[in-house]
Amino acid sequence: MLKNTQLEDWDRENFFHPSTHLAEFARGNLAQRVITTASGCHIEDSAGNRLLDGFAGLYCVNVGYGRPEIADAIAAQARELAYYHAYVGHGTEASITLSKMILDRAPEGMSKVYFGLGGSDANETNVKLVWYYNNIRGLPEKKKIISRWRGYHGSGLMTGSLTGLEAFQKKFDLPLDRVLHTDAPYYFRRKDLDQSEADFVAQCVASLEELIAREGADTIAAFIGEPALGTGGLVPPPAGYWPAIQEVLDRHDILLIADEVVTGFGRLGSMFGSDHYGMRPDLITIAKGLTSAYAPLSGSIVGDKMWKVLEQGTDENGPIGHGWTYSAHPIGAAAGVANLKLIDELDLVSTAGKVGAYLKGALNDALGDHANVGDIRGEGLLCAVELVEDRDSRSFFDPKKGVGAAVNAALLSRGVISRAMPQGDILGFAPPFCLSESEADEIAGKLAEAVREVLG
Ligand code: PMP
């Protein structure tokens, strides 16, 4: 192993880190952490720290680190057949098997899986498929896509436009046109504190209806949403939100894309968030939990209604002009097959539901009474603690104070990783599904210490 100082120098000199303050990094003001090994829910770095990973990397290492079953499947695939493409009807045992395993688990009415590499490219695929679909149907004006403020759908050109967070658009000349944003179903941040949850849902629905009326339903192709908001704040939807939205979309012939990059394969304690919340999507985006991040792989699951039109389109226009070199990469597919088998064998989906409920209970016990804790929320192993300046008036801290980031740092100094979500003082927890109850207690206990250190 290279010396730490050597690696740190090379890192600063050569490595363009994503989502990083480049100037502060160059000045040496950002901590550099070289991760060396990991097992279960813990990662280790080259300075000898062992950290409890309360965010499973970027909420993706769902089965936990160091699973030999997946490592062995990857190695065996690399030895047998490291690569062949999937164009013009080619496939491999791993990619064909995985497509069947995904459809066996998917919500009703799904027809085929297109494989990509990550969540962003899968959503780019989805947008192209939606446009293709309406062109084949003879509806060339019906192309706009509605997303929600605080939604996260990637950082490509179109997906960065769909993402409803300013940081991903600023100075990149985004959003592109054809993208519209509507309200986030974020009840805790409602304007009128006296508003009931049912009235808040009605308001979300009414503002969607207004947007559709203003733009014209004949110009709107699809609505994209995460079953539970992820990067925008880790917010499960209020009761009845999805059925009410679905009714509006159906009435206006607007497709639903369920972005299940985070929620797919068990994070909410159900195999898919769409089933959990009563969504009937036409397209489902999957990535992260598909391989538990042991290899990069994503997918677009295409529903029956769209599939029929796509087939018809190729009869009229020839082969579909969309594909990546690494679509259905056999190594990613082998990781996916081994990962989904492990999830079944260890019953990890229901485990995520149970451990998630335990973690939320532990967070409530540790912090429920703190004057600056405004909300403790979650579904399955997707939990958040939102800090406020004043609980009664639910006023928020000035973002410049960086309270969430300070608590996150205080927690890290105690050996636990959370994620300071990008918009608001929100500490996010989305650990691997193998989190034990004592690890959940450790997260809650140390978070309480960190909150007290920063806020008293
Ligand atoms: N959709 C959602 C809901 C996500 O959370 C993410 C990534 N955090 C993406 C899409 C983009 O995935 P990727 O970073 O793999 O491109």
UniProtKB/TrEMBL annotation:
Domain of life: Bacteria
Required cofactor(s): pyridoxal 5'-phosphate
Keywords: Aminotransferase, Pyridoxal phosphate, Transferase
UniProt-listed Pfam families: Aminotran_3
A single GO molecular function term of this UniProt record: transaminase activity
CDD domains in alphabetical order: OAT_like
InterPro entries xrefs: Aminotrans_3, Aminotrans_3_PPA_site, PyrdxlP-dep_Trfase, PyrdxlP-dep_Trfase_major, PyrdxlP-dep_Trfase_small
Keyword Glycosyltransferase tagged: no
Signal peptide start and end residues: none
Family membership: Belongs to the class-III pyridoxal-phosphate-dependent aminotransferase family.
Protein name per its UniProtKB record: Aspartate aminotransferase family protein
Organism the protein comes from: Pseudooceanicola antarcticus
